[in-house]
Amino acid sequence: MHGSDLSRRAVLAGSAAAAALAGLSSLQGRAQAAESAHGAATAASPYNWRNVFIGGTGFVTGVVFHPAARGLAYARTDMGGAYRWDDSAARWVPLLDWLSQDDQNLLGVESLAIDPAKPDRLYLALGTYAQSWAGNGAFLRSDDRGATWTRTNLSVKLGSNEDGRGTGERLLVDPRNSDTLWLGTRHDGLLKSTDRGNTWAAAPGFPPKPNASGQGVTVLVAAERTLYAGWGDGDGTSSATTLYSTADGTKWVPVAGQPAGPAAKMPMRAAYDSRAKELYVTYADAPGPNGQSNGSVHKLAVTTGTWTDVTPVKPGGTDGFGYGGAAVDAQRSGTVVVTTNNRWSSGDTLFRTTDGGRTWTSLEDSATIDVSETPYLKWGKAAPTFGWWIQMAAIDPFDSQHIVYGTGATLYGTRDLKKWAPQIRGLEETSVLFLISPPTGQAHLLSGSRDIGTLYHDKLTASPAGGLATNPIFGTATGIAQAANKPSYVVRTGMGDNGNGAYSNDGGQTWTPFKSQPAIAKEAPGPIATTADGTVLVWSFIHWDGTKHPTQRSTDNGATWSEISSFPAGATPVADPADPKVLYAFDTATGKLLASTDKGLTFAARATGLPSGDGGYQLAVAPGRSGDLWLSTKGNGLFRSTDGGKSFTKITSCQASYTLGFGAAADGSSFLSVYQVATVGGVTGVYRSDDAAKTWLRINDDQHQWAWIGQAITGDPRVHGQVYLATNGRGVQFGQPA
């Protein structure tokens, strides 16, 4: 169990991030591409990048305040990286945007740790999935608060986006020697490093046996010089051991008298009250964030070994839930906050005690929540809820009334224990699937994402005022399309409880559900297209497990549907932007391009012999040009057809193409600007071409890679050089020429 130090220095632009925020109000500027037959010219800083502001939208799984540096805090997310709080700017600064596409599994943060005595030191354990198909985890250490990093590749897998991601922290700096670190893993036991994470080995004397399907070490905490490790693979019986301790770092023993049984099956979090010498531990009967129905809170007087049950409300009957977050007030002995989780009957809350757990107050009972900065948090209702998936809470050690807690969608904070609002600026975790930049109208962008469906971005610098699209609400968008010659008409599809398709006649501001839908739409809504005039809809159906179903067509705005037998099942329909009679589809199974000239009634094969197989294909058509098709393929590069798909020519200027889109043409250019996430000259990045793909300019840099970015990209049809990029965990990135 050890890794090799690659001494890989990755510079996060603390200064570059600040520079990227400057000058973004200007929509002017040009970045010039150099002539190159096979590569791209890379300027020192050709583009400024920032997030399109949405505000969170993902699971904030941990926040750690530094006990010795006022205003210093770090946040981790399940799949969207780590952040440092910039107190002067009141916003979060992303720390992992430099991760490349090759390291996409590392954007999830399993755990973070600070050195209490050395504020500049920060440690991260990275790894989004622990499945067989995922890569191993990695460990990062920084001596400058995350501005630069040294990386060690691990020989084990971590799982920040799997069950149990709200437990922790699983990473700990040893209070007896700050060069010694401990890392709890899910399936490989407890690891120890004596050289600040340069090398790792199995911790000696740790008795539990690793389990290939369990949770392993769920939490590590120090109480004075004694270390405690929570074990998540107990069976919930009265004899189960779930908490171990060590006084010397070599011999771990079960903690005497510890609680057991279903309500204490799995330690979730732990927090130490150094004034009272008491360790608080929250428990649940499952790792969460879903599936918990029982739990408890106990405290251990570490000097006497006495345990006390201080559970605020005992779960039971129809009110089943677990306990999650735990935080102590560094200034006030006996003041503690714990969180409930998966309490759907009466809603999750934070319980607070000021007398060591003898009495508790629910902070939700007196809370007012202001989400005016992130309206999507209303979820289509009149008012927001206190939140769900609350598995973490943290108390500012310099301000007892400054508390934050993470939910499945945001991070809430308060300064007076009553008024709460998202403390989320700068933290964007959306997994974005679709982008449209309309040619006219107020909005420069429409997006479709996981978890929050479709958004109408009336401003790029503020969360959409209308919140997420309603009527109906989709948890995850599966398609969005705009009628090229009637941009006020937009259709969308997705996973919803009250319908799976809707249309808009005002550019995506308001929606009307389809009057009917095929039965398969409930479980397998897929992508959708609308003809250039908006008179015909073509809806594809593909289940989340990959099962493909026959495609359907509507000529009455979704009131009735009929099957298209000649359309390749599961393919993405694409409408010609100029000819309303023409639609296209690329059959990835056979490598055929099919086209319809009768508004989707029938499809016939045109070009054959194109790349085929699973994944990594996107068919796009150049706006305003009939039959100008572009096929991006991950494994075979880029292909173009100018005859409606009858024939394709391979574009040799790039080796791989992950996603492609178009934007306004450069001054003097006869063709639109082309944008793609691609490999050019052996370098994977974001590229723009102003000469129809003869040459490419790389417009991102090594500090702005965002891990996985192969989902969607589009230029702005009204502003040359302005581009929108979908990421899997870092929201929508918005780029402008510097």
CATH architect. name of the domain at 432-737: 7 Propeller
Radius of gyration: 27 Å
- The number of helices is 1
Number of strands: 58
Strand content: 35-45%
How much helix, percentage-wise, in residues? Answer: under 10%
CATH fold descriptor of the domain at 432-737: Methylamine Dehydrogenase, Chain H
- The average pLDDT value, as a whole number, equals 93
CATH superfamily placement of the domain at 432-737: YVTN repeat-like/Quinoprotein amine dehydrogenase
Assign the structural class, choosing from mainly alpha, mainly beta, alpha/beta, alpha+beta, or little secondary structure.
mainly beta
State the separation between the terminal residues, measured CA to CA. Answer: 45 Å
- Pick out the low-confidence regions: 1-45
The biggest sheet, with number of strands, parallel, antiparallel or mixed sense and barrel status, is: 5 strands, antiparallel
**What general form does the structure show?**
elongated
What does it look like?
It is a single chain. The chain is mainly β and 738 residues long. The protein has a domain at 432-737: YVTN repeat-like/Quinoprotein amine dehydrogenase (Methylamine Dehydrogenase, Chain H, 7 Propeller). The protein is 1% helix and 39% strand. The protein is built from one helix and 58 strands. The strands form 14 sheets. The chain has a five-stranded antiparallel sheet with strand order 1-11-10-9-8, with no helix packed on it. Strands 2-55-54-53-52 form a five-stranded mixed sheet, with no helix packed on it. The longest helix has 8 residues, at 14-21. The protein is elongated.
